[in-house]
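[audit] Reproducing an earlier prediction to check determinism. Same input, same settings, fresh worker. If the tokens differ from the archived copy the diff job will pick it up downstream; this log only records the rerun itself.
[audit] input (198 residues):
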Amino acid sequence: MAKIRREEVIDAGLELLNETGLEALTMRKLALRLNVEAASLYWHFKDKTALLNAMASAIVLRHHRMPVAGDPTDWARWYTENFRSFRAALLTHRDGAKLHAATAPSASEFEQILPKIDLLVAAGFDDDAARMALLAGGQFTMGSVLEEQAQGARAASAEADPGEMTNSFDFGLSLLVAGLRSHLIDKLKQTQAFPQRY
């Protein structure tokens, strides 16, 4: 039985995802792609769910490397660029958003989230609001990319505006930022600590 590395399985899975889409991706097809017995895959992943989790995590860790802003007052620009980066990562693979929505974040992904929460808390949000701000941004981004990838054929046609999806995404993101800024201003006013920079 041929021996394969865990990363080889993930890479082949992502290649197969691009070719077949998430619905048609099976462990049997993946084993055939790698020219191994299916048992070789289960040595690294206990089931298909575990493999899909690893594939989704790989997409994020490889393509979504937005550093946390050093200045908390720059939170709005960072928030915008962070979710633009997340969108770009999901778009690197066919059904990227569908894959991500169907899986659980890895420990490595959770480690990336904590400094982001800390940044928003340093900017003035309380811990719960910081978490909800990131969750809302993530859900909005995944929903936008799900729609974009579902309409891939239409978006590729000659009649489609290639920038339409990007423009609508940026507009929605700007509304999220505006709402968060308003929430923050209200909170700071209540504490009588409203600085002019906001």
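[audit] rerun output stored. Observation attached for the diff report: The chain has two domains: 6-46, 66-190.
[audit] end
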